[in-house]
Amino acid sequence: MVKVVANAKALKKQKMPQWFYQLGSPRWFYELSGKWLPWLGGSAALLLTIGLVWALLFAPADYQQGNSFRIIYLHVPSAFLAQSVYLLMAIAGAIGLIWKMKVAEVVAKCAAPIGASYAFLALVTGAIWGKPTWGAWWVWDARLTSMLILLFLYLGVIALNSAIGDRQMAAKASAILAIVGVINLPIIKYSVDWWNTLHQPASFTLTEKPAMPAEMWVPLLLMVLGFYALFTWTLLTRCRTEILERERRAGWVCDLLSNSQIK
Amino acid sequence: MYFSSFSDFIHMGGHGLYVWSSYGIAMLVVLWNVVIPLLKRGTVLASLRQRLIRERSHESQA
């Protein structure tokens, strides 16, 4: 009788759509992501190869910046990605906090090192691009400083995850840091409008026509899509490994491990 | 094709060092994002399999 009441309560509590709960099942996530991986990897390889050849060989040089302009094809995608991955990490962290969803905790943990790597790439390519364009590797301007803070936030999340032994505590602490750090995202976005900075305003937005010819922005679009596809591949691969480790006692993981075909 | 010769391509109108160092570092970051997850998966699968074999042999002995 008690069980029936508990079940009824659980049913009543279930307010989110069905897929939301399925996504919370590590096994379901593992099997679905396995089907996506080859497509993601393939499209990432294709987009990045075409984008790279186009960016280096066929895109025209900028009339002011010359060929150093080609750094945009790395700088913009990595900067986009560093910010969206952060948002994803914070949202996943929040879902983990609120619904105690295992998969969300895994996603939040696995996104951090990937996001950090792209924040690093955005900063380094920015510095290398700054030298011939501004005459300085680094200036303490709002855009650059807030991007550096983004990298430090990522490093903080990684440090919390590895320093706290208890898995649930680690997930909680790093989720809170990630959520608080979201305040940095609008600062990055609007820094070029709010403050006088060396950094140029966005030349590539979702809503407006780009202020450059198609032979410049089409390869940029390909690179952005390629970086996103690659990120998704990396994230899913990392999450799947983390799920196997966490669920090693589950029957389906033991079955999977017993199958020596699975590499 | 934007460049007229291979040495033009390498030179990048005087920006060769900047362009090529950026692309080199990006290549490393991309490789890191491909190789590390695959290696990690390999080592984790191997250690989980070993653990499973150990546990099963314990069970059969008991």
How would you portray this structure in words?
The complex is a heterodimer of chains A (263) and B (62). Chain A is mainly α. Chain A has one domain (30-203, 212-258). Chain A is built from ten helices and no strands. In chain A, helix 4 crosses helix 7 and helix 6 (142-163) runs antiparallel to helix 7. Chain A starts with a helix and ends in a 5-residue tail after the last helix. Chain B has 62 residues and is mostly helical. Chain B has two helices and no strands. The mean pLDDT of chain B is 91. Chain B is rod-shaped and about 75 Å long. Classes of the chains: A mainly alpha (263), B mainly alpha (62). Chain A binds chain B through residues 48, 56-61, 66-68, 70-71, 74-75, 78, 114, 117-118, 120-121, 124-125, 128-129, 131-132, 230-231, 234, 237-238, 240-241, 244-245, 248, 253-254, 257-258, 262-263, and chain B through 1-3, 9, 12-16, 18-19, 21-23, 25-26, 29-30, 32-34, 37-38, 40-42, 44-45, 48-49, 51-52.
Q: In summary, what is this structure?
A:
The complex is a heterodimer of chains A (263) and B (62). Chain A has 263 residues and is mostly helical.
Rg measurement of chain A, Å: 21 Å
Task: Give the total of beta strands of chain A.
Answer: 0
Number of strands of chain B: 0
Number of domain modules of chain B: 1
Topology pattern of chain B, helix = H, strand = E: HH
The oligomeric status of these chains comes to heterodimer
Average pLDDT for all residues of chain B: 91
Q: What share of residues are in beta strands of chain B? A: under 5%
What is the average of the pLDDT values of chain A?
90
Our estimate of the beta-strand percent of chain A is under 5%
Tally of alpha and pi helices of chain B: 2
Q: Biggest sheet of chain B, open or closed, and with what strands and sense? A: none
